[in-house]
């Protein structure tokens, strides 16, 4: 499903994208931040299955886009998003044939409910899982998350008491939310400063606690984000646990080296994002009527995880240093001298039970840790 979001506030636009991607599987979203930008998309021949349009824009009124779309299509869903809540404004927008009207500040639950009713359920219409993965590669992919909407709503009710540091600590082991918040914060940061945001805490500070909580709620309401198939769910849990182990081992090594552990921890947490993305898309494939057997799942993971991982690292605008650290978990060139990459590769070997291997011991010596790392078993499933 192709969606056009016209919203000049980039953080609100990213939030709308999160909601849309959570409702419709394989959504391809175009974000326009001005009326002229949206008009150019239509001039180029682009057509969409859903429009979310802000009313007041820097260069005009969103109603002008509504009129243009309605002149050629009387049925496509159009939702007006506006800070205007008076009856006259709602009636004026309704006169132009909108399908729904949502006021700001956004009520994520209400928006989710309204869009779910407007957007029909997906129908795969695809032959093989391989074809489906190929077609979905450029769509919006959000990793599966275990976040409970009730927990997020509780946090929203206490948001005045919460700091970015507290939220970052609470969410530090959730790969899906970490990835999405880094993505949103980097979109904003790149436009303003040209520099990336590297830590979860900085990402939350960048967008503000309230917006971070709204993003979390949008992800939590993403029913499609939950892996339904027991086989795929088991695979997703295994890859999540692998990433969590690498994250914890990298954090330990960073602390022993006197370094701030947050970036190392995040690199480990995101080290299996390609596999998790493939499993999410395969779950969508089965939900839309596709069939899979165990060997096909393994084949798809082997063939597509690197492509999806590389695509997401760019799509989410992850800093180059973080991308390189993630890559080092899987492969480290022999001539690599960057300490952060050496740490990540060593952490991956330790997490994989290879702490006594020649490669691991060599890496530890190169970063100045001659002693074997602690064999203490990390605690699983502990969350603040």
UniProtKB/TrEMBL annotation:
The record places domain HDOD at: 142-332
Question: For the modification 4-aspartylphosphate, which residues carry it?
Answer: 54
Which PANTHER family does the record match to this protein? RESPONSE REGULATORY DOMAIN-CONTAINING PROTEIN (PTHR44591:SF3), STRESS RESPONSE REGULATOR PROTEIN 1 (PTHR44591)
Protein's UniProt keywords contain Zinc: no
InterPro entries from the UniProt entry: Bact_response_regulator, CheY-like_superfamily, HDOD, Sig_transdc_resp-reg_receiver
Keywords associated with the record: Phosphoprotein
Keyword Phosphoprotein appears in the UniProt entry: yes
Which residue numbers delimit the Response regulatory domain?
2-119
Please state what the protein is called: HDOD domain-containing protein
